[in-house]
Amino acid sequence: EIYTLSLHDALPISLADAKLAMNRLLRMLAMRGAGLALLLAALAAFAALVSYSADDASLNNANLREVGNWLGPLGAVAADLLLQLFGLAVLAFLAPLFVWGARALRGKSLKYAMWRLVAWPLGTVTVAAGLGLFSPPASLPAGVGGLIGIAAGGLSAHAAQVWHTPSLSWLLPL
């Protein structure tokens, strides 16, 4: 027996298909838009860091000189704050944003997103603490590991002193 579809029966089916297609399109556009936003934010932060100058006016350096940062005064302040907090570990802070943004822009989902969101700051802090072991160059506002590295180095030096174990001063931040 041949089943024929009347116009009355076909219309709800085609409307349901159109609704599903529209939902898929909107989800894809939202994901790609979020990916573009992440990628642009990471690129802007990276551009601010590349053009960082200790002579630019920022929250802890008041002067009347022309700001040399590519993103202007906002970029100078952002780069100074990022470098003060993380030091060179700011690259470990920005790398996931680049990767996640690029994946979302290509329409790829992010597996284990909640675990990655937890691991991202923990990994950045761990890298900054490890970098805190290195001697600070004059070009960075708060050393290679930033304030996190300074704190980790100070805490580990204190623990080494309290427990009379000098190796803890370099072992704990790792």
Number of helices: 6
Kindly state the mean pLDDT as a whole number? Answer: 86
Shape: elongated
Radius of gyration: 25 Å
User: How much helical structure, as a percent, in the residues?
Assistant: 55-70%
Main sheet? none
Q: What does this protein look like?
A:
This protein has 174 residues and is an all-alpha fold. 66% of the residues lie in helices and 0% in strands. The chain has six helices and no strands. The protein has helices at residues 7-50, 72-86, 90-105, 113-131, 146-162, 168-171. Helix 1 packs across helix 2 (72-86) and helix 2 (72-86) runs parallel beside helix 5. The relative contact order is 0.10.
Secondary structure layout plus pairing:
Layout: H1 7-50, H2 72-86, H3 90-105, H4 113-131, H5 146-162, H6 168-171
Helix pairs in contact: 1-2, 1-3, 2-5, 3-4, 4-5
Task: Give a quick summary of the entry.
The chain has 174 residues and is mostly helical. Helices cover 66% and strands 0% of the residues.
Features:
174 residues; mainly alpha; elongated; single chain
